[in-house]
Amino acid sequence: MSLAGYEVEVQRDGGLTTEEMTLNMGPQHPSTHGVLRFIVKADGEVMRTAIPDIGYLHRSIEKISEKVGYHGFMPYTDRVDYVSAMQCNQGWGMVCERIAGIQVPRRGEFCRVIACELGRIASHLLAVGAMVQDIGAYTPFLHALREREKINDLLEELCGARLTFNYMRIGGVAWDLPAGYPEKVTTFLDKFDPFIDEYNDLISYNKLYVERLVNVGVVSKEEAINYNLVGPNLRACGFKYDVRRDEPYSIYAELEFDVPVGTGEMGTLGDCFDRYMVRIQEMSESGKIVRQCLNMMPPGPVLAKVARKLKPPVGDAYIRVEGARGDMGWYVVSDGSEFPYRTKIRTGSFAAMSIVDKVSRGLMIADLIALIASFDVVAPEVDR
Amino acid sequence: MQEFIDRLIANGAFAGMPVEVVYALMMLLFGLVVVFGFFLPIAGVTSWLERRVWARIQSRIGPNRVGPQGFLQWLADGIKLLLKEDIVPDAADRPLFLFAPYFVVWGIVATFVVIPFSSNLIIADMNVGILYLTAVTALVVVGVLMAGWASNNKWALIGGIRSAAQIISYEIPAGLALLPVVLLTGTLSTQGIIRAQGWAPWGWFAFHNPFTFVAAFMFYVAALAEGNRTPFDIPEAESELVAGFCTEYSGFRYLLFFMAEWGNLYVIGAVATTLFFGGWQVPLWTDSVVLLNISQFTVFFLKSYLWVLISMWVRATLPRVRVDQLMILCWKYLVPIGFVNLIGTAIWMVIWPHGNRVVQYGMVLLAVAVLVQFFRRVRFHLRRARPELYYSPAI
Amino acid sequence: MAKNGVARYFKNIKDAVTTIFEGMTVTCSHLVRKPYTIQYPDRVPVRVQDTLPFRYRGILEVDLEICTGCLACERACPIDCIVIDAPKDQKTKEMLLTRFDIDIAKCMYCGLCSEVCPTGSIHHTTEFEGADFSLESMIRHFVKAPVVAYKAKKDGETDPVVAPILERGMRYIQEFAEPADMKKVKAEGKAAAA
Question: Are A171 and C52 within 8 A, CB to CB?
Fold first, then answer.
């Protein structure tokens, strides 16, 4: 890619010539979450610009939908954001149901919400764990992964896979809850709330950790809205917007949960620490949602009857779901055949990548790592 | 050691050889014994133990296949790295690149000369022992800078420069933390410092007065920073710079850097024990010199290794500090506190030239209270999490 | 409290010491906890494959005894990893299965094929160890010699060899949710409410 407009600055300082260093935080790097590349111009430790270079994980998923059809695309949606695959399944299911006029049974909606919220906990665990590891603490990452393994076990019992779930179908979900499942989930959640407290004791308020994150990468509310940030990134700036609360879909309107917002408790509002804390608090909220769903689940079918060759009417539909990384937009244009004419997925990580350059001016290289980790950027979402 | 050799010569052991040659040969022999009999095994076993301790802290197991409980893992790793290709980047500065690991290892191994293993086991009881220690560990800076520069890799360069800044800066607090002890004993010799302490905790310098108590921890923190250990492992920050200054190294040269780091852990522990925690002091429980020396060696080794275990534990718990925060910590926090300690100890010595028994007992009680509170919190965490317990370290 | 200043200085020191102390108590408490690791594959009490749930989507397997040759799985597969040849035998007018290849390297273990199988002949097993040395071994050939496709019997299966296989297959596909006609469900709900 060309670096036109980003030429190196040469300064003459009383006879001493200094230059900026151009560093390449390449696609292979232990702490860019996936294959992301940054071209960093640094004056010693302080960065002048950090230009993201994306596209290393582009797999033409949107184009693939035009070949495999509506039903067949469901497994591919898992791969759009493989860290929180359930919400992607839901997005695709909902947009096809919208465009084809299919109604999901009530129990199916509850199953979907349970799966999505468990998936959200798993995704946030990975996000905060990876963030902590990038800052240098190795232990909390593994503790978070241990809890994520427990969720993976739960979801494996539910749908048979640990990462690429393919749990939902157009019209509901593929499997009902197995026998004894609510007890297992409740057991897990009972152990999970003390785990979050322990995690906070271990690392969240650790002085060294807090000092790494406060006042780093401050994003104001206006900037966040202008740059299209969504999800925890947006809520950390103090703007209380959650698709589940503001444009409720599925059965979220009946559930009681809080939307954590950044408070600037340790530093400035909208810094990395706020983004981190919002994710920690969201995990507890998701736990609450799952408990409510388990209590409120009605009996009944979980899947609606849908034609094997789904031929929706000509038109388009746009659906928003609250993914773990924020508001995911799913857009489908149908031309009446069994294959979509065009699918477009709008993900939160793509927007977060765009703000990295602006926010990273003046930060140190170590802060760039903390910044990317706090935006919870995953490469598959950026490149699809 | 010198008296030992002199006694041997007087008894006619080395018939006819000039004294200088005997000394030279003996120096070589002791050097080899220390390096191959002590330093290498300690560094290796520390690497294995670190992985096992880390693993338990992280809810996993660690190496347990190669040998009983994975004890030979470090040998296997060492042999594997020996057999690996020694890659020297094409554009790297070849002589500097090849030579850099040796400086780092020299800096660490040379400290073993003054480490007092027991009252009679010390290679050279120099009367400037502590000064020699701080001087020789500074050789590591040269090695790290050479490694960073010669790699012809911008990331390695950043790592090398960060490390140089870090080690040089933290020499100051480390030195300042040593000085109260030197004031108290009036000597720089390591054996002299130990002899000035008692075998019981209230005889140790750490609990002598509040200022040396703070100085003990300050020394430990500064020594951790000098050894590039988390929370100060920015030069080799894995998640930022891949491997920092040793990115381009492979094979045995890479191993040398890490052996130096693990060996340095032991040196930190040994020096902290010598200065603040009584060294090899044991009550005179036997008349036999050999038994006494063995018990002293054991006590010293256990005390030093306890600090090694604490280093591993700290590494597992704490995140990394950023470079500018590292500098702030050093210059704004540790150096002023170091000066306060120094002046405080000097004033203490004026007021109570022979130490204050009450304060010493009080400090020991304070330390015990802190430990008790620590284990009460551990029990709280276990009660809250209600996990499945498994006490045995062997899995 | 001022951003800078002496009070802030001492608060920083106090915060650092107390939070590091707290963190170290947590890690110390982990030293006596049971590790979460499963020492696969040799130090597990039960084979891992036998501990996995029935719904686990491992490597595909085809029970040719109950395959009806409907080709629903081949059509449903989003990645075209199933290749079936089911010609009609000219003489006996029965459907023959001459080729049933599944490329387990291509397969993405989504379960769409097993969902549409009418008898549960193609199903996921709990096997996940498929690594091998050659690419050819990644294609599993399930037809050794041409067989006649299965035809479901109206009064249930009586053949003692086929019956258990069919039973397992049906049990597998009964795990999948039964699609309901939402109009009927709605009407029933209205009738029940009325």
Answer: no
Token pair of B376, please?
A: 């009460």
Look up the ipTM and state it.
0.89
Point out the residue among B59, B61, B374 whose CB comes nearest to the CB of C30.
B59
Are A139 and B316 a contacting pair, CB within 8 Å? yes
- Res. C12: pLDDT tops 60: yes
The Cα of C19 is separated from the nearest Cα of chain A by a number of Å equal to 5
- The residue type found at A60 is S
Task: Give me the mean pLDDT over the A11-27 stretch.
Answer: 76
Cα distance between residue B14 and residue B8, in whole Å: 8
Contact C175 A306 (CB under 8 A): no
pLDDT per residue over A61-86, tens digit each? 999 999 999 999 999 999 998 998 99
A280-312 pLDDT per residue, tens: 999 999 999 999 999 999 998 999 999 888 899
Which H or E element spans position C60? strand C60-62
Smallest CA–CA distance from B380 into chain A, residue: A198
Q: How many CB atoms lie within 10 A of CB B294?
A: 14
Average pLDDT, integer, range B17-33: 84
Look up the pTM and report it: 0.91
pLDDT at B381 over 70: yes
Is the separation of the CB atoms in B241 and A25 below 8 Å? Answer: no
Show contacts of A219-225: CB within 8 Å, 24+ apart: A219/A270, A219/A355, A219/A359, A220/A270, A221/A270, A223/A355, A223/A358, A224/A270, A224/A355
| CB C147, CB C161: distance < 8 Å | no
B63 in Cβ contact with B117 (< 8 Å):
no
Closest CA to B274 of B107, B118, B106, B110: B118
Residues of B near C (Cβ–Cβ under 8 Å) read: 53, 55-61, 313-314, 316-318, 333, 374, 377-382, 385, 387-391, 395
A266-288: average pLDDT: 92
Q: What is the pLDDT of residue B228?
A: 83
Q: What residue has token string 């028994």? A: B357
pLDDT band at C1 (very low <50, low <70, confident <90, very high): very low
Using CA coordinates, name the residue in chain B closest to A30. B239
Tell me the CA distances in angstroms from C73 to B317, C78, C117, one per residue in order: 51, 10, 6
Provide the token pair at A125. Answer: 């665990």
**B111-168 pLDDT tens trace:** 888 888 888 888 888 889 899 998 998 888 898 888 888 888 877 888 888 888 888 9
Whether residue A323 has pLDDT greater than 70 = yes
Q: What is the mean pLDDT of residues A197-209?
A: 92
Average pLDDT, chain C: 88
Q: How does residue B305 score in pLDDT terms, banded at 50, 70 and 90? A: very high
Q: Does A178 touch chain C (CB under 8 A)?
A: yes
Q: What's the rounded Cα separation, in Å, for the pair A202 and C28?
A: 11
Q: Which of B357, B351, B344 is nearest to B214 (CA)?
A: B344
Classify strands A16-19 and C96-97 as parallel, antiparallel or unpaired: unpaired
The answer to whether A228 contacts chain C (CB < 8 Å) is no
CA A378 – CA A374 distance, rounded (Å):
11
How far apart (Å, rounded) are the C-alpha atoms in residues C56 and C54?
5
Q: CB of C29 within 8 Å of any CB in chain B?
A: yes
Closest partner CB to B231 (pick from A134, A136, A201): A136
Q: Give me the residues paired with residue B286 across strands.
A: none
User: At residue B243, does pLDDT exceed 80?
Assistant: no
What does the angle CA C166 – CA C168 – CA C174 come to, to the nearest 5 degrees? 100
Which chain C positions have a beta carbon within 8 Å of B317's beta carbon? 20, 23-24, 26-27
Query: What string of DSSP letters covers A232-278?
Result: HHHHTTT----HHHHS--TTGGGS---------SSSSTTSHHHHHHH
Number of A–B residue contacts, CB under 8 Å = 91
